[in-house]
């Protein structure tokens, strides 16, 4: 926000600057004027939200300035600064809707309280103004957007422009300039973006209206596109440069405008502007404000992400970030060697990556509601493209997806092995074979063997044997069970084989184990 202090006495201006808590209310720019005439120029140029003005000044006094502000429909909050003998002036000032007044000498508490209230009221009223303006602009945008894709523009638009601007857009040679706000959609929230768009449209329409050159609107069919519809094609480059300069001054945004070839059919000049916009090299070191067909590279071949699908797929499935990084580096190097990266290439990358991502999410049964990183922060604050940021963002997108895929893959592997273990524990007394398990779980024998050994550090056969022997040791404590009955209960139909396996693991026969446990029990009971 901006504030303007108007007083012919320098020490008064300096005092206000020192006493007010500007930062607390969000005011970052403070302007000064010594009289009303100087103030008018600053107000027209900077449009300050808060104005402090003295009543007695040379050339143009406070009342004259306030009257001028009143008739110019200024939205600034005006705070008059007066002496005790200025009440006649103050009465007139109040008639013209000043926000408040302060008496000299200025009390610091009164100053900051009044400033805070003025800023608060301006913000509240501006929110309403912006809402109304957006509503009116939205209707206008909707109607005007229809001229871009139809050979014959709607009659209502033709008649409106003819009546308001005395121009027949179906008979006069016109051209279209395109300005993308794609970079701001990713860096700002909806409210901030709306405010930026509103400011840009206001600047464009003010300049176009001043020079009677055309109108500006937002294309509702492409949310990132602002359109300049230009007629009376002479000095249009000068007007566009004036627009670009003011956008830079007021919003600190560097923008380029793709200027289509003049045509009688608006749809033709729009398509021309779209083509220029898409093929403009974003990596150009010398920033071009106005881009025409002569400055585009028609010979540039776009790089297809799909051409690397198999390589990327294997890297993703292996979970190797190092391998994935090699592939991405190869792609990025191609762009750097060509020293060319266009909006068309950017849109193609985004589109093909989203298709690949959707396919992998479905294949790995990853819920779309899970947070998947979307990397679009590859624009500088001033709106220019940053290729280094682009590389970082795209790597991060791939890394995030790879991590989630690998996590799900590992979880599935672990889950299947745990299910197999559970099945074995419940059925170890049966004649279980590796083939039975593979058939039951729809997995290959080799895969099961490898994963089971990795998880439990032993083969399935050894694991089953261990379970059987541990269970048999519990049963052998029962004096009423014979050795062959115990062997049969744990899955050994041949008692001799059971005895052989038991002795190999425990170092003694089942009978000897049973006798030793019974002896221990008797000793404890005696």
List keywords for this structure.
526 residues; alpha/beta; Rossmann fold; 4 domains; five-stranded parallel sheet; five-stranded mixed sheet; 59% helix; elongated; HTH_AraC-typ_CS; DNA-binding transcription factor activity
Task: Please provide a written account of the structure.
It contains 20 helices and ten strands. The protein is an alpha/beta fold and 526 residues long. It folds into four domains: 2-127, 3-Layer(aba) Sandwich (Rossmann fold), CATH 3.40.50; 147-295, Alpha-Beta Plaits, CATH 3.30.70.270; 305-401; 428-525, Homeodomain-like (Arc Repressor Mutant, subunit A), CATH 1.10.10. It has a five-stranded parallel beta sheet, sandwiched between helices. It is elongated, with a radius of gyration of 39 Å. The mean pLDDT is 86. Keywords: Cytoplasm, DNA-binding, Phosphoprotein, Transcription, Transcription regulation, Two-component regulatory system. It comes from Paraliobacillus quinghaiensis.
Report the β-strand fraction as a percent range: 5-15%
CATH class bucket of the largest domain = Alpha Beta
Outline, from the CA principal axes? elongated
Rg calculated over all Cα atoms: 39 Å
In the CATH hierarchy, the architecture of the largest domain is 2-Layer Sandwich
**Mean pLDDT, all residues:** 86
Number of domains: 4
Write the CATH fold name of the largest domain. Alpha-Beta Plaits
Main sheet: strands, sense, barrel = 5 strands, parallel
Question: How far apart are the first and last residues' alpha carbons, in Å?
Answer: 96 Å
Low-confidence stretches: none
Total beta-strand segments: 10
Q: How much helix, percentage-wise, in residues? A: 55-70%
CATH superfamily of the largest domain: Reverse transcriptase/Diguanylate cyclase domain
Assign the structural class, choosing from mainly alpha, mainly beta, alpha/beta, alpha+beta, or little secondary structure.
Answer: alpha/beta
Tally of helical segments: 20
Strand order of the largest sheet: 2-1-3-4-5
Oligomer category: single chain
Main location: cytoplasm
Protein name: Response regulator
Subcellular location: Cytoplasm
Domain HTH araC/xylS-type: 418-516
């Amino acid at each position: 926000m901006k504030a303007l202090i108007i007083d012919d006495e320098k020490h008064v201006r300096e005092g206000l600057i020192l006493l007010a808590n500007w930062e607390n209310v969000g005011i970052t720019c403070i302007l000064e004027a010594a009289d009303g005439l100087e103030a008018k120029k600053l107000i027209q140029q900077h449009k300050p939200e808060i104005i402090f003005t003295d009543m007695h000044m040379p050339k143009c006094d406070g009342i004259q300035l306030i009257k001028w502000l009143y008739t110019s429909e200024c939205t600034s909050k005006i705070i008059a600064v007066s002496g005790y003998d200025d009440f006649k002036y103050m009465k007139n000032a109040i008639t013209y809707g000043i926000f408040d007044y302060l008496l000299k000498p200025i009390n610091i508490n009164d100053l900051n309280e009044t400033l805070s209230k003025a800023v608060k009221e301006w913000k509240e009223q501006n929110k309403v103004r912006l809402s109304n303006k957006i509503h009116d602009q939205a209707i206008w945008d909707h109607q005007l957007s229809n001229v871009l894709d139809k050979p014959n523009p709607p009659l209502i638009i033709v008649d409106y422009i003819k009546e308001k601007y005395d121009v027949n857009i179906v008979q006069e040679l016109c051209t279209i300039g395109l300005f993308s706000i794609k970079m701001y959609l990713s860096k700002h929230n909806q409210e901030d973006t709306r405010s930026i768009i509103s400011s840009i449209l206001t600047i464009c329409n003010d300049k176009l209206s001043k020079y009677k050159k055309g109108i500006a609107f937002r294309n509702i069919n492409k949310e990132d596109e602002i359109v300049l519809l230009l007629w009376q094609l002479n000095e249009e480059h000068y007007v566009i440069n004036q627009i670009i300069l003011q956008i830079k001054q007021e919003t600190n945004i560097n923008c380029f405008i793709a200027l289509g070839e003049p045509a009688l059919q608006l749809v033709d000049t729009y398509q021309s502007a779209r083509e220029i916009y898409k093929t403009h090299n974003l990596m150009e070191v010398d920033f071009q404000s106005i881009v025409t067909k002569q400055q585009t590279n028609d010979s540039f071949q776009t790089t297809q992400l799909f051409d690397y699908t198999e390589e990327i797929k294997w890297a993703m499935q292996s979970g190797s970030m190092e391998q994935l990084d090699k592939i991405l580096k190869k792609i990025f190097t191609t762009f750097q060697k060509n020293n060319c990266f266009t909006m068309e290439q950017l849109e193609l990358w985004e589109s093909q990556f989203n298709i690949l991502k959707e396919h992998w999410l479905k294949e790995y049964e990853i819920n779309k509601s899970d947070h998947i990183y979307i990397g679009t922060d590859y624009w500088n604050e001033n709106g220019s493209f940053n290729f280094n940021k682009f590389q970082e963002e795209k790597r991060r997108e791939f890394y995030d997806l790879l991590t989630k895929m690998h996590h799900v893959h590992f979880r599935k592997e672990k889950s299947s092995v745990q299910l197999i273990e559970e099945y074995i524990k419940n059925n170890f007394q049966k004649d279980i074979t590796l083939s039975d398990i593979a058939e039951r779980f729809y997995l290959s024998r080799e895969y099961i063997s490898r994963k089971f050994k990795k998880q439990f550090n032993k083969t399935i056969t050894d694991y089953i044997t261990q379970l059987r022997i541990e269970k048999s040791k519990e049963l052998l404590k029962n004096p009423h069970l014979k050795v062959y009955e115990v062997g049969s209960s744990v899955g050994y139909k041949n008692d001799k084989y059971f005895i052989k396996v038991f002795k190999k693991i425990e170092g003694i026969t089942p009978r000897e184990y049973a006798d030793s446990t019974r002896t221990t029990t008797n000793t404890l009971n005696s």
